[in-house]
Amino acid sequence: MGTADDILRAEFPPAHYWRRWAADAPPPVAATDDDEAGRARAEIAAAASSRAPADDAAEPPFRVMIVEDDPSQALFAESILAGAGMQTQVVADPDLAMQTLEGFRPDLVLMDLHMPSLDGVELTMMIRRHGAFSQVPIVFLTGDPDPERQFEVLEIGADDFLSKPVRPRHLLAAVDNRIRRARAAHRQAPAPAAAAPAAGLLAREPMLLRLAETVSARRPGALFLLEIEGVVALRDRIGYAGLDVLLRAASRRVAELCGARACARLNDITFLVLAQEAPADPLDDARALRDGLARDPVQAGNETLRVRARVGALPLPGAFDDAGSALAAAERALRDARLDPLGIAVYTPPPAADAADAGLADLVARAVAEDRLELAYQPIVAVSGGQDAQFQTLLRLRDDQGQLLPAGEVLPVAEDAGLLHEIDRRVLDLALDMLDRQRRLGRRVRLFVSQSPRSLGRDGHAARLLDGLGAYGLDGADLVVDVRQDDALVHAVSLQEFGAAVQPAGVQLCLSGYRTNGEADSLLAQLPLSYVRLAAYYSAGVAEQAVRDEMREAIDRAHRQGLLVIGQQVENPQAAATLWMSGIDFIQGNLVHQAGSGLEFDFQNAVL
């Protein structure tokens, strides 16, 4: 039997090992029973030679992107796959994976589970959120023997995992089979609704342009948001394949119901319908959409089901500045429909402000005009330690007497007065200016900046943010946009649009005030998030067992989605200790450091 070094060399071949598959290579040496390394070499050659030819001789070679920071592991996989005729691209730095993905456009991603800076779970979530690559097969190489970790890998969107050290024929078989099945499914799949005129559905971009034209011209009409009900329960009942059949049937049925009206599928379960004529009663039209969708049963696998939906209606023109604000109002109507027993609702404008609020609204307007908005900063500290400097920005408004008013007093009145967008724009300007000043001092800082989804959904808001990053020469990864859970539940569609626009620049999203429940948990999968900040309810109630149990469930659920979790408003050691034992990633609160006007905090020597 060969030595341990022989076996190691068989698993991690030298740079020119691929020559063994070349036409002029010498014949393989037969392995003997006592030659472990020889058996490994013979197995590699047999695995490559046994690969079945492509179904179509003209089919392009399989393309595999290998994300692996260990050079020997990367070389091993590259040698096996290249020797079998596949095109490979090795990415040693996982931070460059998304850029390489878009340029190389692989048939399959093979990646390590544990990597520095960006692990396999995080990268999988990023790939699954990228529309063009949401279905690309992902296979993990992992030395982690924990079956729970392997289950987590599959749960967050991976297709398979192989345990290290992997045998060559196992690696080749897994990659080959996954790519063949993916290509076959792609050939058999019908064209997406956005690209198939026969389906009657527009792509999202043309639909939003049409909405923008209608709103800017102040034409009469109505906007409807239709959302399929009970998707999670349906998936558990009929499986992913059955659910896909059901949603495709729902798309066709919505297109039929719309007739000449413009309609588009915004995401898996949400449709946007634009009526460019004023309906006699928007509630009747919403009811017709709901009932029409449920009228004809759908066969999904062995189940015959009727599709149920909720509908929010928005009469137009209304007092809306652009398509984003109109869409935000329609989302509010849809949120009301979720709470209505009949599942339909019409948008109701907020009530007019009273005299006291009107006075505060005037103060806010003058403060914005006179540049009297300020930011305070509170550190967000990793419980495992580290040198990364990151702060939560907190809005403050200076009144006529020079006193600072907190965001909780200002923002509700500003929203009712239509000033929220101006405040959000100014807050972003202040944050970018601070990042630039820190960069000039040679200091890398990450800022979490609160924004209203109503602002994020407005036309031009994402473009303005990207322009600001470019003008300062800043890295988008230094900015995390923070949105409250209650707002995100209303404006999920707008947040998806915003995330798709800013993610290529590295800007990340954080869901703040997260408390686990059915509706909120669905946001973790729907939105392109990187962080969640727990509701203060958890840190305030750690003395109660029920609260602790719910908190652990919330943290675990977020981690299974590949998200980092922040515990906020931590005011005492008991809360900090309980959060730490529950698996929290970061802590924020007065126990760590009070909010202040500067960014003075020693992250390197912070002790929790």
SSE diagram, text form:
Layout: H1 4-11, H2 36-49, E1 63-67, H3 71-83, E2 87-91, H4 97-104, E3 108-112, H5 120-129, E4 138-142, H6 147-155, E5 160-163, H7 168-188, H8 204-216, E6 221-228, H9 231-258, E7 262-265, E8 270-275, H10 282-295, E9 298-300, E10 303-305, E11 309-316, H11 323-339, E12 344-346, H12 355-369, E13 373-379, E14 381-382, E15 389-398, E16 404-406, H13 407-416, H14 420-440, E17 445-450, H15 453-456, H16 461-472, E18 479-484, H17 485-490, H18 492-502, E19 508-514, H19 518-526, E20 531-534, H20 536-540, H21 545-560, E21 564-567, H22 573-581, E22 586-587
Parallel strand pairs: 1-2, 1-3, 3-4, 4-5, 11-12, 15-17, 17-18, 18-19, 19-20, 20-21, 21-22
Antiparallel strand pairs: 6-8, 6-11, 7-8, 9-10, 13-15, 14-22, 15-16
How would you describe this protein?
Helix content is 45%, strand content 18%. The chain has 22 helices and 22 strands. By secondary structure, it is an alpha/beta fold. It has three domains: 4-188, 3-Layer(aba) Sandwich (Rossmann fold), CATH 3.40.50; 193-346, Alpha-Beta Plaits (2-Layer Sandwich), CATH 3.30.70; 373-587, EAL domain (TIM Barrel, Alpha-Beta Barrel), CATH 3.20.20. The protein is globular, with a radius of gyration of 27 Å. Mean pLDDT is 80; it is low at 1-37, 52-57 and 190-198. Helix 1 runs parallel beside helix 2 (36-49).
